[in-house]
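Progress report, Aim 2. The chain analyzed during this reporting quarter is listed below.
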Amino acid sequence: MTGAVLLALLPIVILTALGLTLRRRRFLTESFWPQAERLGYFVLLPSLFFHSLATARVEAVPVGALALTLILSTLVVAALVVALRPVMRIDGPAFTSVFQGSVRFNNYVGVTLAAGLFGAQGIALAAICNAAIVPTVNVLCVLVFARHGAARLTPRGIVRQLATNPLIVSSLAGLAFRLLGWGLPPGLEPALRTLGAASLPIGLLCVGAALEFEGARAWLRPVVSASAMKFLAMPAATLLVASLLGLHGPALTTALLFQVLPTASSAYILARQLGGDAPLMAGITAVQTVLALVAMPLVLIGLSAFVPMG
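Predicted structure tokens for the chain:
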């Protein structure tokens, strides 16, 4: 497990560092990165999820147990963060950033790791993880913004955001496609596979380009709080729920992987749009991306000594 995790992390480190270097050296124009993120989010990653689920053998995947493990563990940690709010001594906008840093995750890193460890099965498992966690996290974060930030979203607005989320729609569509026994047309299948393959390198380059460490220096306590929730409380809650539901093997490994992923750069955009503390969010994202390179293998290697996950 140790060697497999480290090998799966290697391309993530290389591509993330390359993205950071390209952005700092201004090799590409500044306008390139937002457009690349948009392309990945709305076209490339949905293609990957739809293709992987439409062609996967989901009959062998514990879809219900995996989804329930992720949802329940996320709710447990979210409740813990809210309960600890009074002792954090930070204002409302800053709390929204700590909350996002505790529960939000980076899709690109998770899919790359799952694919590196389990191949096509890993991509299918990752797509199921996204279908379960994305709506859960988005609902929770929007509710927290409505309470502690400057957001004024109505219930209809929340439903609209979820119903039009390309990652949720593509995952559910691919799963339905496979369960109905429909096959992809010969010309469409390789096109979707190629688009999906492009999502991972482009996404990881964008992850590196979005790293900003300036906010972390001024907000040490909130950064530490969010990271402790992400890398300690979240995997512990996931393992507890998984043991109760009997989740094991590659599904358990993938669930743990996704629950120790660093916060996505999209959290910064959400903080800026909904009245959160955007500089703090940028700092949390940058620090967690670096910490995850150590935390992810440590969590999996440590837990593999007690639980058979491979």
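The chain has one domain: 2-304. The mean pLDDT is 85. These observations will guide the mutagenesis work planned for the next reporting period.
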